[in-house]
Every structure is written in C-alpha cells, then in structure tokens.
Write a structure and sequence with these properties.
- The chain is mostly helical and 228 residues long.
- It folds into two domains: 136 residues, Rna Polymerase Sigma Factor, Chain: A (Orthogonal Bundle), CATH 1.10.1740; 87 residues, Winged helix-like DNA-binding domain superfamily/Winged helix DNA-binding domain (Arc Repressor Mutant, subunit A, Orthogonal Bundle), CATH 1.10.10.10.
- 65% of the residues lie in helices and 0% in strands.
- It has ten helices and no strands.
- The longest helix is centred in the N-terminal third of the chain and has 23 residues.
C-alpha cells in the first residue's frame, strides 16, 4: 500500500466498522436505494463507489453463511466474528476487483472468509507446533445441529475434530445445503475431490458416532449436497 493510499484505506476502514455493528444489531431498512434488488454486478459497483447502503444489504444477506463457515473452521466464536468483520472490510476495499461471470459475489466473499480462516489456522498451528492442539468449546448455537443434549454435543465435538477441509466440505454441503458443484467451486477443488472429502468426513463421523448417536448418521450418509 502506498503512502498516498493509506489515508483513504484508513477512512474506508473507519466507515465499515460502524456499518458492521449496525448489521449485527439487525437487518437494515431495505427501503433505501433498493440494494437488495440489484444484481451482483450492480451491488459490486455500488460498494466499490462507497455506497454504505449497498454494503449493509450485502452483509445482511451473506452474514449468516459467512459466520457459520467461519465458526465451523475456527471453532471459536470470537475469532469467527473477527474473520467476518475482516471479510467485509476486504469486500469494501476490493469490490471493484470482483469479476462477473467467474463466481457469484457471495461465493467470492465466502472464499475470502475461508482464506482468512486458513491463514489464522496456519498461524495457530505454527504457534502451538510443540503442544497438543487445544479444542475450543463447541458453539451451542452451531447452525444445522438441532439435536439436543449429549447427542448434539457429540456431533459438535466429532465435527470439530475433523481435518479442516473435511469439516469445511461438510459445513457447506450438509449445514449450508450447497450443491456439490457450488461447494467445489468455493473450495477451489474438483467435484470429485469434494466428494472424496465428504466421503472421508462421513466415514470418520460414522466411526465416532456409531455408538453414541447412530441415528444422526443417516443424514450424513445420505448427504444433502450430492446433486451435480
């Protein structure tokens, strides 16, 4: 970043943080500039121009998915919130670089969030290389886990223990109910590679949950994102 661009970047960051806080407090009034009805290209252009209403509408539409993905990968609510905020800061600063036709705007933003999670996970591994990994307390509000009591806890712990790419594949296809093609595009892998990640994740979950919560494996075994 050049010295000349630093004040502009600082100004944009100071504006996005209150916008993010407004979104966390509830969905914005959609009677403004009709941002919700714009296509991705129009929304991206508006955000690139500094249209806060367009950004607020985009955050309201995409925050649930981006937050859920970040929580699943990070296993830490505070870090997931940090990832979400940093994601929208990057969207705010880089919306003009989004290329129509390559991916939907939401997919592009979710990819940013995933990369931020990977960066944090890599730093976490480097910082604790000689230590046993500490498993964060599971999020009691994890989306998609509606089973109560011990069974829900078993599922959260089992999913959290999966390798991060298997965990992400399951999050996208089962909990976010994406199709395999969209999930593979988001993870930047082939559909075959995604299906391999799903299969390995399901096998590991089945091994862990076979005794404690066998009924919960039916959904994983059938899959929710298997359409091609």
């Amino acid at each position: 970043m050049t010295a000349a661009s630093q004040p502009l970047a600082a100004a944009r960051e100071s504006r996005i943080r209150p916008v993010f806080r407004v979104i966390r407090g509830g969905r914005p009034d959609r009677d403004g500039p009709e941002a919700a009805s714009r296509g991705d290209a129009a929304i991206a252009r508006a955000i690139a121009r500094g249209d806060e209403a367009a950004l607020k509408a985009f955050v309201a539409d995409t925050l649930p998915r981006i937050s859920a993905v970040a929580r699943r990968l990070m296993n830490d609510e505070t870090e997931a919130e940090d990832v979400a905020q940093e994601t929208y800061l990057k969207v705010w600063n880089n919306a003009g670089r989004w290329e129509p036709g390559r991916a939907r705007l939401e997919t592009w933003a979710t990819r940013i969030a995933i990369n931020l999670c990977y960066d944090r996970l890599r730093k976490r591994r480097e910082a604790t290389f000689d230590e046993a990994p500490e498993r964060a307390a599971p999020d009691p509000d994890a989306e998609g886990l509606t089973v109560a009591g011990e069974s829900a806890r078993d599922v959260r712990v089992a999913v959290a223990a999966l390798p991060e790419r298997q965990r992400l594949a399951l999050e996208l296809c089962h909990f976010q109910e994406m199709g395999n093609i969209e999930a593979a595009e988001l993870m930047e892998v082939s559909v075959e590679a995604l299906e391999s990640l799903l299969a390995r994740g399901r096998r590991k979950l089945k091994a862990v949950l076979a005794e404690t919560a066998p009924d919960l494996m039916d959904g994983f075994a059938k899959g929710h994102g298997d359409e091609r």
